[in-house]
Amino acid sequence: MSTANTISISSPADFHVHLRQGDLSELVTPHVREGGFRLAYVMPNLIPPITTTVQALEYKSMLERIDPKTEFLMTLYLSPNLTPDEIRKAKRAGIVGVKSYPRGVTTNSDGGIESYEAYYPIFEAMQEVDMVLNLHGEVPSDASANIHENPCSLSPLRIVLEHATTRVAVETVKSLGSTVACTITAHHLALTVDDWAGQSWNYCKPVAKFPDDREALHEVIREGHPRFFLGSDSAPHPSIKKSTSSPEHGCAAGIYTSPILLALTTHLLESFGALDKLEGFVSKNGRAFYKKEVTADDAMVLLRRRNSNTNTSKRYSYSWKGQEVIPFWSGVDLEWEIID
Amino acid sequence: MSTANTISISSPADFHVHLRQGDLSELVTPHVREGGFRLAYVMPNLIPPITTTVQALEYKSMLERIDPKTEFLMTLYLSPNLTPDEIRKAKRAGIVGVKSYPRGVTTNSDGGIESYEAYYPIFEAMQEVDMVLNLHGEVPSDASANIHENPCSLSPLRIVLEHATTRVAVETVKSLGSTVACTITAHHLALTVDDWAGQSWNYCKPVAKFPDDREALHEVIREGHPRFFLGSDSAPHPSIKKSTSSPEHGCAAGIYTSPILLALTTHLLESFGALDKLEGFVSKNGRAFYKKEVTADDAMVLLRRRNSNTNTSKRYSYSWKGQEVIPFWSGVDLEWEIID
């Protein structure tokens, strides 16, 4: 539902978010709700990674203590420690998915995997109990094979290809059946390679690609394809790690969008003529694939067009106990804002 | 000439180098010779740009005061101020080339040009007096046209396509006649996109491309193609500008190789089986195209294979009056070193 200047969205759900640990987690977890979202699908790449049901439930309790109102869907990190029995136990405990990281491509992914064959028994168990496999849509670079970005595919398990960035990935997912879906981040709707070349604040993994790839992301949202939905991959890093590189160590990969996510996504969808697909993209499509109906009482989130007289173009940040994070597009005045 | 563990090279010449201004120039100009080179083809993108013969000669005098032993070949910055008469005057004063920058793609290129038509009278005068046109092989990005990198071409003027980074550029230059040559930097023989993603110290313009592009650069050197030669594009920036990005401003683009240039180039050519083409690449090919015979007395430069017992893997830098620069691969032990 939308009129010219206000929009209401039924219970926005972010199907890919990093909520970190310790003080940084205290700082960023409330931003999911402040950014307009009622549900967070939580990534397991902590130190150590979340590989057991017990760890996942402990982590969930901690997150609920920080923000009791947000619904947290938990995931396990695919690793050799995982067993079919643990999968069944996880399902009974309400854990929704298993995240597979290729080794070494993202923050805390050193325990990632290189070959899927050893995991077929796990995948069978996941299929039995209807858990979702979340594939990090990126393979480690291999110069000899000229490999930089690749979507992976498996079947007939329910699979989500995470954070698609290329036309090839979009077309691959579209060509597959109803068991395969795909998340798209907000920032990949805005960025191309030119934006992160030499600008560490726009650097994330997978990297933003070429204008034609970004156009493919826009197109699939504009057509309202039901198997594509928002997973922000919102990934906070302390600002010092985003702003500096030494010759030995580059900057941290990750873009932090949680605090402004719904307004940012609305702004971007309007920019490429997809405002009428907003509710599908940020709520209905993902909820349908994950079978997560809206349950919260305060499910509706309202947005209004901002008064441009209030534009400031001022950079802002969030701090807590010595942790500082600066969101994506800090200092950019968005067209939309949430009405509290 | 080479034996297993020593190599002698006749008067190495770097046909593309940035020597800057002020204290930074004092710091980096001697590094050309320390890095093993006897001739520097000097870029004109200062503030303000070098657009007249008078400016170029003043700049040359300053460089010669800093290092009387290095031969400096001077260039003018192509701009609407340039006239055919100024071209003839420049030629008489020993200026060798005119550098054309597309607007805005590199350090101090805001005065760059967008269309070549207005410059045809200049090009005619350059052809008359046998000056070289140096084309910055990069066009500004244009999302609507999906443009990121493009070689340009013109004829029948003598033209050098600077710092080729793609297979397409290499193949284009190979397909053209004897009036078109091409420089290749040392760092583009080492880097691909993965090296500068999130690592500002490896970020330069044009950016390093994909492994297959790098392979094309290796191939054309390995085959000893006479119209391809070294132009380091060595581009020092104060280390603070290389190491930091704010959300509003990215890091400086540029890689600094002068102080280690000959040893680095030797190391790299050996790594891809082109050590026997070293003298052609770093001296003879470029000198032949630019018609610059070896004149200096101390023309021979000797290299020897380093004793790996002396490896330190320690980062080093150069400082002068508050300016600090850190070279490319600082902390990497090269296979070769110059014998003083």
From TrEMBL, chains A, B:
One of its GO terms (molecular function) is metal ion binding. The keyword Transit peptide does not apply. It comes from the Eukaryota. Keywords: Hydrolase, Metal-binding, Pyrimidine biosynthesis, Zinc. SUPFAM superfamilies: Metallo-dependent hydrolases. One of its GO terms (cellular component) is cytoplasm. One of its GO terms (biological process) is pyrimidine nucleotide biosynthetic process. The keyword Protein transport does not apply. PANTHER family: DIHYDROOROTASE. This is Dihydroorotase. The lineage of its organism: Eukaryota, Fungi, Dikarya, Basidiomycota, Agaricomycotina.
